[in-house]
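Continuing the series of single-chain predictions for the mutant panel. This is the parent chain; the variants come on the following pages.
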Amino acid sequence: MPSNQRQLNIQFNQLVDALLVAVIFWLAHAFREHLAYWFPLSLTIGDWIALDFSPIATFRYYKWLYLVILPICPFLLDVNGFYERRSPLGIRQTLWVLTKSVSLCALVVIAAMYFLGLTGLSRSVIILFAIFTIVVLFAKDRLVQWYLRRYRTLGRYARQAVLVGTPERNAEFEQLLQDHPEWNMQVLAKIEPGEDLLRVLPQMLHRHPVACVVFNVTQTSFADVEKAILACETEGVEAWLVADFVRTAIARATVDDFYGKPLLVFRTTPDITWQLLCKRLIDIVGATAGLVILGPTIMLPVAILIKLTSPGPILFRQKRSGLHGRLFTMYKFRSMVSNAEMLRAELDIFNEQSGPVFKMTNDPRVTPIGRILRKTSLDELPQLWNVLMGDMSLVGPRPPIPSEVEQYDPWHRRRLSMKPGITCLWQISGRNEIQFDQWMKLDLQYIDNWSIWLDLKILARTFPVVLTGLGAR
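Parent structure:
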């Protein structure tokens, strides 16, 4: 399906879901309000209220939460892939995506109630809203899928398509159409590329209501295909060219337009989307909060301890390779003696890590206070400033030293295609206990499967790893 039509369908679904969510929130409040009249009781266990159906505030005190619910709920559904599907989701997958998205929405709403001083509002309304939303959106999704399958079976107003390609390629594309009934397309005929293409195709366009012609051919047939596309242009019929003639193992192809020049773009990293903008927003908020909260409580005392216990600067500055290898200055609390870089060459024979990186368990260059900082990862806190400045992210592959990058194998360099971070899969999987190639594979796994949800999971798992000092040296 053309991207414009697909985006229109997604936006329509988001609008319908937003309207449903608005009605569900009102119904959840009404249901909770009636519970107070049907079951005016509260059961307590010790000091904890286990069940409380006491009267609640009227809906006019809750309606302000629409400002949080209406934009957040469809956004989280989109982020978790509820709308952009390569194939219809099964029942379990649909329920999981809905539960994950709506639960996050409910947590955001409860947090907003706390920060806005709306603690007098009943949280049970939000819980009921979450349950009702999952049930209603699941039912709506199943109903839509059933309708699309039935609509396709009846064949009403289906768009007639002609497939041009080898039998194998045509069969593959026909199966794709069958897997996506929402496209509402039926295969009228299948033609093999060759000398008869320019004769048969115009006749078919004249005799049948053809909506589009799909050219799924190899490079050897491009000469005939170009003339066939021009014939479609003359007739006013859409022509689709399947651009999989460049076979890539990882990169995803997208079509773009650069001032009238059609481009086929191959990307191995996420495209610029709302998810990436959201990631940057999380970076800014997280780094700012970290500097404001941890600055006077932890970072200042650490800075004083470093200054009092060893000669040299408080901060260690080092050039690192960032996004696409762009150099930037990374900051850390100094955990080694001031001439540590000069002593590095003498210790290369004690390197315990494979590849171009240097790791040593009992590095003699590390100061006594530095060992504590490294064990607790407190030496990384100044990198919050790098995150705030945009050189780094909270989550992403660790920024390498330029001299290490020079020794990378070609496949290692792909980790530079995403902005480096303070924590990533490597940090929560054992850090220095992992060999270099496995470390690189974890970084590429992060890039290939990146999502906001993955970032949040990594951040959540980082805290216990830091507290236990797992893999730190």
